[in-house]
UniProtKB/TrEMBL annotation:
Pfam families named among the record's database cross-references: Peptidase_M20
Transmembrane regions listed in the UniProt entry: none
Organism the protein comes from: Candidimonas nitroreducens
Hydrolase among keywords: yes
Chain residues that bind Zn(2+) 1: 69, 80, 175
Coiled coil: none
CDD domains given in the database record: M20_bAS (cd03884)
Keyword Cell membrane applies: no
Family per record: Belongs to the peptidase M20 family.
Residues engaged in binding Zn(2+) 2: 80, 115, 367
InterPro entries per UniProt: Amidase_Cbmase, Bact_exopeptidase_dim_dom, Peptidase_M20
Name of the protein: Zn-dependent hydrolase
Amino acid sequence: MMRLAEIGATARGGVCRLALTDLDRVARDQFLSWVRELGCEISIDTIGNIVARRPGADPARLPVMTGSHLDTQPTGGKFDGVYGVMAGLEVMRTLNDKGIRTAAPLELVVWTNEEGTRFSPIMMGSGVFTGQLSLDDMLKKQDRDGVSVQSALAAIGYDGKRNPGHPVGAYFEAHIEQGPILENEGISIGVVTGAMGQRWYDIEVIGLESHAGTTPMDSRRDALLAASRLTVRVNEIALEKGGNTRSTVGYMDVHPNSRNSIPGRVHLTVEFRGPEENMLAAMEQELNQACDRYSEPGKLDFSIRRVADIKPQPFFPPLVDVVRNAAQELSYTHMEILSGAGHDAVYMAKAGPAAMIFVPCKDGLSHNELEDAKKEDLEAGTNVLLRSMLCAAEM
Ligand code: HGY
Ligand code: MN
Ligand code: MN
Ligand code: MN
């Protein structure tokens, strides 16, 4: 048996386990062995989501579901995603140990490709499960080496046969906050009221490769110079908008990436986050204007493709109350918090009742190999998850 953090462990103490790689397979296989030991019924759907079902006393009841993801960022940590999966596993183990049979069935899910790093967009498995993303379109998505989701799923043996999606009575996801608020406030539990919206773009800047020594400065078509100007502008857009909006250029691929050739082509990614849909729309308008401003038709051309558009999503108030009451009854300090990060719970909330439980992480750091969290906080979050699921399962 391997600890999940060992599967893709990096020299700096982080984890690099990209979606649908062989490391993802090893982690999925390990998860399957654990849930089979618990007597769960397993189903794998056509986008690779794994659902482990613990039968309830009343099979007619809609299941109470929890889960998260096993795929990580390239410089990922041990807790982003994995914590939610392990917390759900702990809930099921505890109920087995105590011989408790809930009225409603319980389900623990591992979502495919939550991070959206190797294959865009983000939250792919839960998006297909809830009908927000088209299965056919997602299966065709390719990574930078031209490998499709469909062939990657088959290569790791997780190209399930079951159609994705089924009615869920309630969904809870436990996750580290991935930001500094809970730690700064000295609070153990985040009662998550909702999540910011986000928009993702792929941008191509087309100039012309030419000789760095012979091409005069005034006749260059330097795609990297234009992409750099755009990068500065993207950051200014969120700073100018304020209101908790965020903007990031996270990826840039320069062609031909040779020190003595003027870059002729750049592929870069832009993402915006914000609590208000109209703010995201305004930021997108600014992005389009910036590309127009930096383009010189026939000299420097920009193409923009929006690849993700996830609306700001409130969680289901009655379930948010269940989480708050559970924290209260267990005497954990708690506070309401809005998630800046996207989570599979966001798509689940578009299809049914969903809520999240946050726990603090060290220095608010995540998507970083130094990601860390305290045992007592992880335990508190798991206890709140258990209590919330039991409450929903008996409702
Ligand atoms: O990017 C996100 O919001 C998530 O952590 N994948
Ligand atoms: Mn995550
Ligand atoms: Mn993440
Ligand atoms: Mn998540």
